[in-house]
Amino acid sequence: FAFTYKNLTYLSPTKCYQVYRLCPYFHYDTEKGTWSSVQVKGQLPCPRSAATISAVGNKLYLFGGLSHDVGWLDDLFVLDTDTWTWKELTDTQGPAPSPRDKVASATVGNKVYFFGGFGPKDGWDTEESTMSEDEEEEDVGQGAKFTWYDDLYIFDTETNTWENPEPIKLGAPTPRAAHALCAVEKKLVVFGGRDREARKNDLYVLDTETMKWQQLKTTGQQPEPRSFHTATAVGHRVVITGGRGLQDQHFADFNIFDTKTREWLQPAVCGAKPAPRGMHTATVMADQLVLYGGSSDVDPETMQCQKRYADLFCARTEEVLSGKSIQLTVEENKENAPATSAPPQDNPSQPPKAPSCPDQPRKPRSSSWEEGEVPGMV
User: Fold this and answer.
1) Are 2 and 312 in contact (CB under 8 A)?
2) What are phi and psi for residue 320, nearest 5 degrees?
3) 3-class DSSP assignment, residue 363
4) Angle CA(294)–CA(3)–CA(253) in degrees, nearest 5?
5) Would you say 344 and 78 are in contact if contact means Cβ atoms under 8 Å apart?
6) 76 neighbors 113 (Cβ within 8 angstroms)
7) Which CATH fold would you assign to the domain 2-330?
8) d(Cα 75, Cα 358) in Å, to the nearest integer?
9) Of the residues 33, 170, 259, 312, which has the maximum number of CB atoms within 10 A of its CB?
């Protein structure tokens, strides 16, 4: 994940190979061009993948994901970035989301909005089947029931209260996961992801004041269908980068959607160009768009990515707003920078201690869409 606070961009790799291993935290100073590591404490989340995280002021809110120990998770943690202390929020009120991964979240004011995701259906063991975070499809065997979600949850960070509103469904997205979500003022923008049928390139907007969905009709060249991409708000524009396509290929493109004109733009990208990738992060820091990490090269047999990246690219937000061309620069200072994860070891010596996931999988809560047996996973 990546987020910005106090002129720094904070990063944590989204994958570690060993189940016991905890990914370190880093921050990157875009003004000085330097990396530093961060030591965290408190009630640390157990190792997981495909969780979602959003920033509200100086705090990070992490929800869900997939654990190789117990399956899908529905826990909620908060990280105070002033003290670098984690805390699990177990005293929340209201209806919370069911266990899931590949859910997307975004912040409007003091509230975090969660949409979609993939996980077990009501009444099914979250440990019925597990999978890699970069797998999208797998034969889970007879009897295992999973679902894509189209429900919306809101977490109020001031009252620690969950809300599960019923937005007007007309014009709403299909149930999906591995999509991208960002906030432009008081509206949520959803692009792409995968539903029951295939990867998508549709675009939706939710007005958080009227709670009405709208599928937008756009002009210009629409990006190809994809999942595991990013959507980053830069003023009134949304930047879509990377992702995985219909043939499991990865993209290295930059697409800009103008929310005022409803037009897609494909600016020329100059300078250092990232390799095609997905599962990366992209965030805005001051006057720069910062892109970090990711993975690519899907093995058709295992459906896992074989390449992982720890590189960082920057572009000026004024160029994004102009829409003509984007000059990318790559960070050359590698001192104290994150490294790509090493391959798993059969017999690792003295593995570091990691927090444990719950002894028992959490009971899935109710979902909001009609349930039917799903033959595969996103």
Assistant:
1) no
2) -65, -40
3) coil
4) 40
5) no
6) no
7) Neuraminidase (2.120.10)
8) 10
9) 312
